């Protein structure tokens, strides 16, 4: 007995009983079909529509302008490849400009978007609506290529789980969504931000990303706050000069926790905790970063300034790292007001890097400041063109790492007060005169540690902020 699907109160109801939307036949056109166990859709949706039960999307389904698609709690939306030679596009849900998608699940009945074929990725959900009224709440998105792709639109995406997607959320053309209370598990990339987009990401869990947790491309900004990033190849990768804030997050056991690695890139990194990462913060290729009020413990390298990068590292705590701050390839940040304790090497300068080191506490480190490989003003002068070297030399002086007005620990301070060179705390020309490059010796730089503080600097270290959420 055929079932006539009615229009109820102006809304076309797609139940688990029956409706087929074919290419060229609008979802708003009532259809009489035999009742299947689940229903399939393809083509267009041209009037307000509700989905519930199990929905199979075959090829591409478009929600037309002015139409609202409402997906009820517990709905399972499966994306299937179109038949061979069918002109229905890739398996996706496409929301046109001016349309609206509302997907509100519950804790007990989440909405699930997944592939109809195990092991085969579906394309994704494309939002082109151009407004901020789209909502994804308590949804699960699995095995897609693009996940939720926002183009010039700014939905709220909250309490959602993204698992094993190529990209969980992707943003294009000034998309500025709010992404909060989400879990991103084992995706190649959890969130990709491009083309002048600026999301607000907060209170999320991002774990096991094969490539990157959050990628912020050139021209994009936004913020990541109160989020835990754990076990990712790269936690956050930042490239661009638009305002970008990383605050109150926790980074655990990432290969690289936070990378800011493009000329002109800027970021504010404040009040985060970095633990057990191979590299905590990588600042490279002439980037400039403000790193303040963070805690770094048990990392391989807590902060690495590389490739003429600059910035400020101030009022941070460095405890139990292999290297607290590493500088390489003529990097020159300001390092002030920090607490360095029980690190193997607190500050390592390599390849002619000359920071400003002032008002820090160095306590219980195996080595406080080390002039390492290629840390030689003479070597730099030998390889640079004369005009490059002269301008650089005017800025940084000759053969000297300036590290004045620091506190060096109780035992080292006694040595300094007695007029001795602190052999244990500082490694420079006094411990090993030359660096050798291609078989030729060059004079290693000296650490200028006078004047020094005779007592710990009370204001050094990170302020005691609330502990970031880790549950």
Structural commentary:
This protein has a domain of 90 residues. A hairpin with a 2-residue loop joins strand 2 and strand 3. With 471 residues, the protein is mainly beta. The N terminus and C terminus are likely disordered. The strands form four sheets. It has a 29-stranded parallel β-sheet that branches. The protein starts with a strand and ends in a 23-residue tail after the last strand. Helix content is 6%, strand content 44%.
Number of helices: 3
Q: What do the pLDDT scores average to?
A: 85
Which band does the percent of strand residues land in? 35-45%
Low-confidence stretches: 1-37, 465-471
Bin the helical content. under 10%
State the separation between the terminal residues, measured CA to CA: 53 Å
Please tell me what the overall shape is. Answer: elongated
Record field, number of beta strands: 51
Quick one: biggest sheet?
29 strands, parallel
The secondary-structure class comes to mainly beta
Roughly how many Å is the radius of gyration? Answer: 28 Å
Features:
471 residues, disordered C terminus, 18-stranded mixed beta sheet, 51 strands, mainly beta, 29-stranded parallel beta sheet, single chain, 3 helices
């Amino acid at each position: 007995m055929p079932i006539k699907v009615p229009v109820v109160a102006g809304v076309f109801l797609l139940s688990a009983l029956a409706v087929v939307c074919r290419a060229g036949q609008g979802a708003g056109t009532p259809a009489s079909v035999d009742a299947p166990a689940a229903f399939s859709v393809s083509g267009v949706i041209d009037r307000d529509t509700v989905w519930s039960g199990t929905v199979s999307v075959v090829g591409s389904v478009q929600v037309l302008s002015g139409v609202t698609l409402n997906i009820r709690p517990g709905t399972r939306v499966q994306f299937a490849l179109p038949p061979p030679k069918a002109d229905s596009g890739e398996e996706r849900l496409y929301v046109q400009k001016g349309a609206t998608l509302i997907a509100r699940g519950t804790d007990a009945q989440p909405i699930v978007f997944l592939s109809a074929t195990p092991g085969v990725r579906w394309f994704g959900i494309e939002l082109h609506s151009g407004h901020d009224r789209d909502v994804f709440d308590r949804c699960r998105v699995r095995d897609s290529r693009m996940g939720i792709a926002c183009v010039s639109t700014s939905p709220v995406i909250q309490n959602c789980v993204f698992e094993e997607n190529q990209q969980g959320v992707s943003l294009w053309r000034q998309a500025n969504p709010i992404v909060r209370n989400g879990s991103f598990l084992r995706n190649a990339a959890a969130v990709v931000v491009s083309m002048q987009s600026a999301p607000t990401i907060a209170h999320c869990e991002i774990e096991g990303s094969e490539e990157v947790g959050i990628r912020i491309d050139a021209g994009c900004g936004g913020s990541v706050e109160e989020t835990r990033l754990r076990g990712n190849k790269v936690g956050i990768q930042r490239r661009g000069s638009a305002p970008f804030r990383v605050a109150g997050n926790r980074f655990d056991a990432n290969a690289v926790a936070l990378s800011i690695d493009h000329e002109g890139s800027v970021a504010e990194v404040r009040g985060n905790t970095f633990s057990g990462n191979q590299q905590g913060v990588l600042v490279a290729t002439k980037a400039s970063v403000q790193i303040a009020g963070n805690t770094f413990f048990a990392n391989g390298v807590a902060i690495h300034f590389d490739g003429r990068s600059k910035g400020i590292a101030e009022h941070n705590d460095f405890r139990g790292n292999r290297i607290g701050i590493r500088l390489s390839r003529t990097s020159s940040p300001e390092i002030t007001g920090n607490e360095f304790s029980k690190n193997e090497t607190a500050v390592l300068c390599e390849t002619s890097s000359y920071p400003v080191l002032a008002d820090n506490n160095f306590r219980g480190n195996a080595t406080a400041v080390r002039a390492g490989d290629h840390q030689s003003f003479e070597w730099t002068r030998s390889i640079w063109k004369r005009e490059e070297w002269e301008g650089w030399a005017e800025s940084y002086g000759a053969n000297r790492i300036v590290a004045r007005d620091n506190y060096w620990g109780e035992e080292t301070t006694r040595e300094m007060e007695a007029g001795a060179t602190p052999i244990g705390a500082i490694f420079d020309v006094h411990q090993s005169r030359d660096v050798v490059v291609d078989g030729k010796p060059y004079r290693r730089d000296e650490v200028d540690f006078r004047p020094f503080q005779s007592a710990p600097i009370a204001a050094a270290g990170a302020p005691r902020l609330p502990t970031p959420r880790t549950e």
